[in-house]
Structures are given as structure tokens and as C-alpha cells.
Write a structure and sequence with these properties.
Layout: E1 2-4, E2 7-13, H1 15-32, E3 38-43, H2 48-57, E4 62-70, E5 72-73, E6 76-77, E7 83-85, E8 95-103, H3 107-117, E9 123-131, E10 144-148, E11 154-155, E12 171-174
Helix pairs in contact: 1-2
Length: 176
């Protein structure tokens, strides 16, 4: 068990399980997209560890870019996701793979998909380490899923609790 700020967490997915699944996802992506011109777009902040480990096992000739979603208007949150910050790569007629740490409701992903599709990619795939099918309200489920998990709060391996815990090498679930 570990403590992050005022909450207690227990190991949910070990570092070894994560690494095994990341290699498995990379193998599937390598097979599926071997003849494609691929641009990976990793969503910050949460996906940085997953994206780094995934790319170590991707053997495709590819590019990677990191983006952030913005939902701010001035100094206050608008409650909407308004823009993609950092998409500097030309994705027109290329295969785009969005790399996300976790997809729960899918609302942010829906907006991101619509923003990327305006750039006319050849095709768009979604790769997520964690997926919460019970919480998903989007129209497009991910193409590549590491682990389907229950709708519980998790931290570690890029995921945070109030910006803390991202550096943990395993994924921890909140202990109620």
C-alpha cells in the first residue's frame, strides 16, 4: 500500500504486467500498421510513461508528437475542450494513432478525434493503456486496449491524484 496526499492506494496492476501488455500492444500495432505512414500523438500529461515505453517496442518507421487539450477560456475552465495544443506534425493522408493513458467517459477523446479529423488523416486509431467500459459514453471505443478496468480511481504510471503519483511504476487503485 502507498499513500498519495490524503488517500491510500493498493497495487492494482504491477510494473511487470504493464510492461508485458505494452509490448503486446506494440506488437499488434506493428502488425496492423506495418505498411502505413504513422504519426503517434500522445496526450499529455498522463500518457508520457506509456508513450515512451510503447515507442521502445514499436518497430514502424513513425513520428511521435505530444499534445495537450485545453479547456480554458481566459483564466477559468469553460467546461468544454476547445483546442489541441502542440499538434505541429502534418497528419494529412497519414495514419494517426492517439496514445492515451486512460479513457473513461470518452468525452475528451471525442473532441480530440474531431480536431484531428479536420487535418484529413488517412485513418485514425486510438490506443489506450486503460479503458473503463462502464464509464464510456463516447461513440468510438479505442482500437487498442491494454487493460479494461472497473470504474475505480487509479494512480501511477503517468496517472495522477492532484498531480501527484505520476512517477510510480505500477498502477494503484484507491482503497476505500
Amino acid at each position: 500500500m502507498i499513500q498519495v496526499l490524503d488517500k491510500t492506494f493498493e497495487v492494482f496492476i504491477s510494473s511487470e504486467e504493464i510492461q508485458r501488455e505494452v509490448r503486446s500492444l506494440a506488437t499488434k500495432i506493428n502488425e496492423d500498421l506495418q505498411d502505413e505512414d504513422v504519426v503517434f500523438i500522445a496526450v499529455l500529461n498522463g500518457s508520457f510513461m506509456f508513450a515512451a515505453d510503447l515507442m521502445k517496442s514499436v518497430s514502424l518507421s513513425s513520428e511521435i508528437s505530444f499534445v495537450k487539450m485545453s479547456s480554458y477560456h481566459g483564466t477559468t475552465s469553460s467546461g468544454r475542450v476547445d483546442e489541441l495544443i502542440g499538434l505541429n506534425n502534418d497528419v494529412k493522408n497519414k495514419t494517426v494513432v492517439i496514445v492515451e493513458d486512460i479513457i473513461d467517459s470518452g468525452i475528451t477523446m471525442e473532441k480530440m478525434i474531431s480536431l484531428i479529423e479536420m487535418e484529413n488523416p488517412k485513418q485514425l486509431k486510438i490506443c489506450t493503456l486503460l479503458y473503463k467500459p462502464e464509464a464510456f459514453k463516447g461513440t468510438r471505443p479505442p482500437d487498442y486496449v491494454g487493460f479494461s478496468i472497473p470504474n475505480a480511481f487509479v494512480v501511477g504510471y503517468g496517472l495522477d491524484y492532484n498531480e501527484k503519483g505520476r512517477n510510480l511504476d505500477a498502477i494503484y487503485q484507491i482503497k476505500e
